[in-house]
């Protein structure tokens, strides 16, 4: 329920960004209700694709016309090679929450993330990332028609690469500020990853050392506010969306992709050699002396001292002034 509420809020905000371009502008108030007659769905696809769909919309309170509107929208998606699994017009007309969210995620993935990461995808290697979001990758079922199966499987593979490319881009932008981003989930809870991306775009907007003295909530609020007010990146998330045990990957991906949309000139940077190590500008970890029985280790506390890491170190040498943590803590 928590994840569903976060997705609903994030996806609604994302949709309203695009529906505001309609003439007259449209707005989603309750996604699961407003999508039922097909109008919102057809209008969104028209804005995203640049193709005319609304002329086929029939306004009616009768279920058969609502189903017909939704069916036309789904047919348009299928013709565009957007893979839809177990999503039919009746489920959308009934406001089935999980399938509505699944439908909108597929639209976001295809029309925004896949397109925005196109340059990254061409210049980066999909093998440079050891792991990524499990959502699109976990779906391996395809239609039975051979020609359709081939087209659809390519689309799914492209979607996986798009998310990988976005994560690699994030890692490139945040690594030099000592922020290790492993995924589109827990890596973002502290707010430092968002701040590091902003700093990579405009170094005058963020003081990373000062951020370490703040709480996760404060850093998240700062990041979302700065991105919206200084960089015109629409605010799709709230701090409480991230301050949970398992932040929603799809919502984070949707928000982070906006930085590419607003700053496309950054897309191809550093992607000719995805395995090249970038210099670390700072690491922002606190090094503490350890008891004598643990002489071979240095205890490193993350910001807020929520997680502890240890690294091997010869005590005969002075402690290093900078330490970069590459792996996930044990």
UniProtKB/TrEMBL annotation:
Listed GO biological process terms: nuclear migration
Any one GO MF annotation of this record: actin filament binding
Subcellular localization: Membrane
GO CC entries: cytoplasm; meiotic nuclear membrane microtubule tethering complex; nuclear outer membrane
Feature: compositional bias, Low complexity: 124-138
Topology of the protein relative to the lipid bilayer: Single-pass type IV membrane protein
Keyword entries, A-Z: Actin-binding, Membrane, Phosphoprotein, Repeat, Transmembrane, Transmembrane helix
Region annotated Disordered, chain positions: 124-153
Alphabetized CDD domains for the sequence: CH_CLMN_rpt2
Residue span, Calponin-homology (CH) domain: 5-112, 160-264
Biased composition (Polar residues): 139-153
Main location: membrane
One Pfam short name: CH
Source organism superkingdom: Eukaryota
PANTHER family: CALMIN, MUSCLE-SPECIFIC PROTEIN 300 KDA, ISOFORM G
Identification of the protein by name: Calmin
